[in-house]
Amino acid sequence: MPNPLVSVLINCYNGEKYLEAAINSVMDQTYENWEIIFWDNQSTDNSEKIVKKYQDKRLNYYKSHEHTTQYEARNKGLNKCLGDLIAFLDVDDFWKKDKLEKQVKIFNNNNIGFSCTNAWIINERKKNKKLAFSKVFSGQVLNELLLRDFITMSSLMIKKSIINDFQLAFNPEYEIIGDFDLVLKLAKVTHLGGINEPLTYYRLHQDNLTYKKTKLNSDELLNLLKKLENDPKIFNISNFMVFKDNVIFYKCIVSILEGNRLSALNNLGKMNSLYHRIKLILTLCLPNNLILYLRNR
């Protein structure tokens, strides 16, 4: 795949605060054969004005006729992508200058259908950064993903033929975990080319969806769990039970924070591992403010 066109999909809803940094990080890439598909999901701030001040013909601006869910918007943006490869960049994230150059080379291996990089997590509150993952895996990674989702959305790149051949898309019924749902689907049908180098910068701040919608996140994971329990390709993988216990534990955390510790305790028998049971019992002994501190540190 010599010099493939990379479609960079940027979905936006009121992203004016960090938008220029995101777009500039694409403009500054050492790899130049790209297009930006900017999908504006009916922003009411200055996002449109910011985008339209750029004169680069590779930047394509589209405004949705109506405001949709996040993953409906992603699907609509996907339909506009012309590239051989599709990369994703959230409006509050940005890339190192050689991110595309290094990632495109991964696809010289025909077995690779999608790729990701490691990332720096920038904590807006603490004004510091840390490495997102100790290791980014490669190859058949379904089992590893069930243990921990190590793919940040803004580091993801997918071969468009994989999306077309397997008719893959984001599930619009999700608001938070649609990224994870998609990478699980990808891991079922193709190999991942992982890059351990942190070429992506992910901002952690109070506006992140997972910060604002903890209960919804838990509900969506429970929904996904029910689906995966009926999928033999995933149900029989060794780490599936660990994934199941993690989802149940997360549900218990939500119950505790809502003041329903008895409901959390009633889930103890649903956990398979002794580790998760002990972890839940210890958590039940902690005050809510300490639980929040431990989860957000």
Describe the structure.
It contains 14 helices and nine strands. The protein has 297 residues and is an alpha/beta fold. Helix 9 (214-228) runs antiparallel to helix 11 and helix 11 (240-257) runs parallel beside helix 13. 41% of the residues lie in helices and 20% in strands. The termini are far apart.
In short:
By secondary structure, this protein is α/β, with parallel strands linked by helices. The protein contains 14 helices and nine strands.
Write the layout of secondary structure elements.
Blueprint: E1 6-12, H1 19-27, E2 34-40, H2 47-52, E3 59-63, H3 70-78, E4 85-88, E5 94-95, H4 99-106, E6 112-123, E7 128-131, H5 142-147, E8 157-159, H6 160-165, H7 178-189, E9 191-204, H8 209-212, H9 214-228, H10 232-235, H11 240-257, H12 261-266, H13 274-284, H14 288-296
Parallel strand pairs: 1-2, 1-4, 2-3, 6-9
Antiparallel strand pairs: 4-8, 5-9, 6-7, 6-8
Helix pairs in contact: 9-11, 11-13
**Which structural class do you get from the secondary structure elements?**
alpha/beta
What is the tally of beta strands? 9
Report Rg: 20 Å
Shape: globular
